[in-house]
TrEMBL record:
Source species: Paenibacillus peoriae
Keyword terms of this UniProt record: Ribonucleoprotein, Ribosomal protein
GO cellular component: ribosome
Domain of life: Bacteria
Protein name stated in the entry: Ribosomal protein L37E
Amino acid sequence: MSKYICAVCGYNELNYPQWDKHGFPTHEICNCCGFESGFDDDAKDIPESIEEYRIRWLSEGANWFSSSKTKPLNWNLAIQLKRINVDISK
């Protein structure tokens, strides 16, 4: 089964794409940052863009979201973010 990359944090173990081929959200939740397509980016009260969600998640400490899927032992946030062309070393 293919794995997919989170548009927010670059985590590459999503089971499904966050949006289908027609651009509709699949409501896939990222184990790393917790972003849910079709919910966080389309919230009724306060929708956030992918970039806004990323900035908030990083500013709050980039905490691992999932309580059922443990963070990989060799997890490296900087390398993960580079998968989506985000460089936090600057």
